[in-house]
Amino acid sequence: FFLTDVEVSVAGDTALVTCTENILSGGPAETEGELGPLVGQLVVATNVFRRSGDEWKVWSHHGSPVLAGREDEEDDDSAEPTA
C-alpha cells in the first residue's frame, strides 16, 4: 500500500497523522497458474503517536473504508419528487 493526503500535527509529545491508505492486492486469476488483476481499496486513517524518550510509538490507529460509487450509476434527476 501507499499513503496519500498525509497531514501531520504535533503538540508536545503527541502527533496526529491523517492520511488515505491506498491498498492494492491481487485479485483472483481467471486461469490457474496465472496472476490475477490488481484490485484496490481506499481507507481514510487517523493515527495518534506518543513520543517515549527519543522514539515515536503508535498509540492509536483507526481506518474506515471509502465507499466507491458503482460504475453503472447515473445522475438521475428524474427520481426527485415534483410538486
UniProtKB/TrEMBL annotation:
It holds the Pfam family SnoaL_3. Residues 1-66 form the SnoaL-like domain. Residues 62-83 are annotated as: Disordered. Residues 71-83 have a biased composition (Acidic residues). It comes from the Bacteria. This is DUF4440 domain-containing protein.
